[in-house]
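pls design
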């Protein structure tokens, strides 16, 4: 009997609808071969929601998303809504959605495809074969800690983590490592910060439940350096909110193209799967957006939310094959392209490869 999943789809603004359509095309292709039934339901967020309902995050979107098995998301925002007050802007809608979903872990893979090693600003020999995952704590740490204040002549924030917060994010990292190369590098600043010492001690405790996973620790300043010196040494990087914010952006640039990288925000319940880039209003509607990051986000959704690793492998392999054959969207056309494709064309080629036995 075929497996059924309820997928909440949020296309959003700008190139959002174009790239999400291609991800759905690819999902439909693997649905046939893997005997899966996707029940999609679309919800509004961001500018599209403002235009239709007057608010960036309608209640219907929150309830629909919470009732789904996973959320596939494009991107929101654009100049049309930039002059609105902050609480009415598209970005406020996305932050509100993440909060409502309780997603405390941000997963950002950074992989370098062999065919695109020249797209990176680093030397090919440094980045060839990079395949790492940054697991960033998303709802705690210094961005949320109390007390916080700006008193005019001085200002402060508080970096605070509870054992429970550290434990749950560490578990996410170890679970992911079990599906990868079984190595976790926990990044902190335990030589200076008490909160980092607690982080380190707690991660050590969690590691005892994962005897197959090799755990190492690294100070964040060293990690920032090692990421550009020898990124291949990493499998899963586990870190807190502010360190992860910085390191995941650094890691994403290893691949050299913003149009390639997926991400996931997950918690105890429903996860949000989305490309790392924004809504690219400058190229919206032209059929030239690169849908690969969104297609890879759909693959992450299959692997991490639905446990459909065979279907996810199919998509990942199809993306690799398409790049190896030299099919490129315009943003990557200068890197060994044999054919420059539109958004829809490259989506169809990936769907075709993904559906082959
Ligand atoms: P952006 O990521 O949208 O675009 C940066 C540059 O990269 C642009 O030149 C764009 O054309 C290009 N680009 C991005 N994605 C691409 C793709 N898939 N294929 C080809 N080229 C691509 O960032 P920005 O310009 O800073 O922001 C534009 C809008 O997106 C803003 O309104 C911003 O608030 C919003 N935004 C949304 C999200 C989100 O929804 N998660 C994230 C970041 C920015």
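designed seq:
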């Amino acid at each position: 009997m075929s497996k059924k999943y309820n997928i909440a789809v949020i296309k959003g603004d700008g190139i959002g609808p174009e790239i999400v359509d291609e991800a759905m095309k690819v999902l439909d292709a693997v649905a046939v071969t893997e005997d899966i039934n996707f029940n999609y339901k679309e919800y509004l967020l961001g500018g599209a929601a403002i235009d239709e309902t007057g608010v960036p995050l309608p209640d219907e979107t929150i309830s629909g998303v919470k009732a789904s098995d996973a959320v596939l998301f494009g991107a929101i925002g654009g100049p049309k809504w930039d002059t609105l007050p902050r609480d009415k802007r598209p970005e406020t809608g996305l932050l509100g959605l993440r909060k409502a979903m309780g997603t405390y872990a941000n997963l950002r893979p950074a992989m370098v495809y062999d065919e695109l090693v020249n797209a990176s600003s680093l030397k090919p020999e440094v980045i060839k074969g990079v395949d790492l995952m940054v697991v960033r704590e998303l709802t705690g740490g210094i961005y949320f800690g109390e007390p916080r204040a700006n008193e005019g002549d001085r200002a402060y924030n508080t970096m605070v983590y509870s054992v429970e917060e550290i434990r749950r994010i560490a578990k996410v990292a170890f679970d992911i490592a079990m599906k990868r190369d079984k190595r976790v590098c926990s990044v902190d600043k335990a030589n200076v910060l008490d909160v980092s010492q607690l982080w380190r001690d707690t991660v050590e405790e969690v590691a005892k439940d994962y005897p197959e996973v090799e755990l190492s620790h690294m100070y964040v300043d060293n990690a920032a350096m090692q990421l550009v010196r020898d990124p291949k040494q990493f499998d899963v990087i586990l870190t807190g909110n502010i360190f992860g914010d910085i390191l995941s952006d650094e890691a994403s640039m290893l691949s050299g193209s913003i149009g390639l990288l997926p991400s996931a925000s997950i918690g105890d319940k429903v996860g949000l799967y989305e490309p790392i880039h924004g809504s690219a209003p400058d190229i919206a509607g032209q059929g030239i957006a690169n849908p690969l990051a969104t297609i890879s986000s759909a693959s992450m959704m299959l692997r991490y939310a639905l446990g459909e690793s065979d279907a996810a492998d199919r998509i990942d392999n199809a993306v690799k094959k398409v790049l190896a054959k030299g099919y490129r969207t315009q943003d990557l056309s200068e890197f060994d392209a044999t054919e420059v494709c539109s958004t829809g064309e490259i989506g169809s080629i990936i769907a075709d490869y993904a559906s082959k036995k």
